[in-house]
Design brief:
Layout lengths: L4 E5 L3 H11 L5 E5 L2 H10 L4 E5 L7 H10 L8 E5 L4 H9 L4 E4 L4 H17 L9 E4 L2 E4 L4 E4 L2 E2 L4 H12 L5 E2 H9 L7 H14 L7 E4 L3 E4 L3
Parallel strand pairs: 1-2, 1-3, 3-4, 4-5
Antiparallel strand pairs: 6-7, 7-8, 8-9, 10-12, 11-12
Length: 231
């Protein structure tokens, strides 16, 4: 099985070295880029399996890099994990709305970031299902096709990240069921995934925005979690 290729877009050399030392034990092929222009050029030559992208970069910032990356047909499906020194919801939601799959706030533990990368790679592998495992889910105006990895609203495709797709898949699989935040984390990322309840709330917020007028179908059950309201 080929080794996963990870591109780290980070201008801080100390962080680059720290991540390199921590991640080389995973057996991944690591590449580094100090700015967005270099990162995009390398991805066009050789697409990665996952990108770790800092928001604060010299020249082109991480948001612009992400937007350009997702606009490329052959690169748009690459999972992207954003890193930011600011834990403000506005920054996090902006990244998720542009197509980021996950985020970590600096200073972070390399072990936490490695766990996020592993989860992203698992979700990416899981999105390539054989025809025999195809699942079509429908609820009201929403339709989800696991084989095509496509979500539709009134027949129009939704631009969802891998994580948002998995989140919608979880809700559509059992309309009306209330999922706790821990259950959502386990279903999307796997057990013992290092993430906070706030992270789930931000992901749900981003998915609601992308569902537009149907965002209200995802109900907050105060003190418990979330559910998809049956149409």
């Amino acid at each position: 099985m080929p080794r996963a290729a990870i591109l780290i877009v980070e201008d801080d050399e100390e962080i680059q070295e720290l991540l390199s030392l921590s991640m080389e034990k995973e057996g991944w092929r690591l590449d580094m880029a100090k700015d967005g222009e270099t990162a995009l050029a390398r991805l066009k030559r050789e697409p990665a399996d996952c990108v770790i992208l800092d928001i604060m970069l010299p020249g082109m910032d991480g948001f612009t890099v992400l937007k350009k990356l997702k606009a490329e047909r052959e690169l748009g499906a690459i999972p992207v994990i954003m890193t930011t020194a600011r834990g403000e919801d506005a920054d996090i939601v902006a990244g998720l709305e542009l197509g980021a799959d996950d985020y970590v706030v600096k200073p972070y533990s390399p072990r936490v970031l490695i766990a996020r990368v592993r989860a992203a790679l698992r979700r990416k592998e899981g999105s390539a299902l054989p025809e025999s495992e195809r699942v079509l889910l429908r609820e009201g105006r929403l339709c989800l096709d696991t084989l095509k990895h496509e979500a539709l609203l009134d027949g129009a495709p939704l631009d969802l990240s891998v994580t948002e797709f998995s989140l919608l898949n979880t809700f559509l699989s059992q309309p009306g069921r209330v999922f706790s935040r821990n259950q959502i984390i386990d279903k999307i990322h796997g057990a013992d995934y290092p993430v906070t309840d706030r992270s789930v709330d931000v992901q749900v917020m981003s998915l609601r925005k992308k569902l537009k007028s149907s965002g209200g179908l995802i109900e907050t059950i105060r003190g418990v979690g979330y559910r998809l309201k049956p149409a």
